[in-house]
Amino acid sequence: MVMGLVRWLRSLVGAVLVLAAGMALAEVALRLRSLQRSQATVTATEGCPLTVPSWQLGYELQPSTKVEVAVEGRDAVSFRTNSFGFRNDEVVIPKPAGLYRIVCLGDETLLAPEVAEHATFCRRLHELLQSRTQYPIEVVNAAIPHGCPLTEWLAARTRVMALQPDLVLVHITWSDLADDRELRRFTTSDRHGVPLGCPHPQLSSRPCVTLGAWRQQFRVVDWSCQQLWKQVEENSPTRTANSIWSQVETTAESAEFTHMLEPLQHLHRLCEASYCRCVVWTTPAPWQLSGTATAEGRARRIVGVPKNGLISSRTPFEVMSRTLADWKVPCLDVSGAFPTGSAADALFLPDQPRWTTDGHQKVAQFVGEQLIAHLPGPWLSPYFRSEAVPASYSRPADRPPR
Hints:
Blueprint lengths: L1 H35 L4 E3 L7 E4 L3 E4 L4 E5 L6 E4 L19 E6 L2 H4 L9 H10 L6 E5 L7 H10 L8 E6 L3 H9 L3 E2 L5 E3 L3 H4 L1 H5 L1 H6 L1 H16 L13 H5 L2 H7 L1 H11 L3 E6 L16 H5 L11 H12 L4 E3 L23 H18 L28
Parallel strand pairs: 1-4, 6-7, 6-8, 8-11, 11-12
Antiparallel strand pairs: 2-3, 4-5, 9-10
Helix pairs in contact: 3-15, 4-12
């Protein structure tokens, strides 16, 4: 009996040692992967690279990091972030005197991990506007993963206004309703209903908060929490992203859609109080233009749009424009920049509902021309078109001092 107990103890100790060795190896592997992440190569179909849970915005980009995004049939695309977690060059704070700064808010469409940085909407817009004036212009890509009016307001409140922008461009689409549904239930608000923060549930859920110290010390624990939460999200009955396209007209006329747009009121007021302008602009999804656009891969199935399906209703655009007009929030409908039918296919990626390089160029051209035609700025004044701008000049003449 004693010998049997000894053998059992030996087996138990051996099993514990094997388990400990396995966890140690896994810890080493995860730490090495973390160290090598700046040189890692990811695929565009994995979603937006460098996305991490955020205590404030639901999701954000890991700051000061770089990865290579593998794109089928083309060279890998460099995807980098600055210290703010924006896909952009480092932003100088405080803003240099004599600089007109535009900050663009949006989601993965503007982040465009499949497109080289120089070919994105923000860079194309900068090139167009800068060609119209000698006054220095900067366009900052402050888009965030899973961006929607809720998280864009929170990003403006906590980060963007510190950049001292002269103009904030907010890109929204009908698809933002799905992200709003996913994140709004985790939002905290003040007594007036103004959102204050949206902590990702992976960070704020009780088991993960309890293990917070362990997660910081051990990569294995952190990775296990992430995998567990992914399983919970994928199997959650509250995931309703697919339903936003099934009854577009009814949903667009509902209070839910208006509620999704409400943070844009707060954002607009914040911009006014900070002496900068705010313009909201919207674009269509590929299946709102063509039944054959973005027909490859799982993109249509994920959002619940059938293959060759076409959502032709104009109700979302009309309700959005009417609602924002009632709130006196400037809104630009960019759907007119896109052709319809098969002609629109070339402007969208075949397996993701985002723009190709040509799509970015076309949208930037349209938005830039609208800004030049209708928005006061350095591109309108003959003074700003002179060969030299005095170094002492620090603000446009049509704006009150800060």
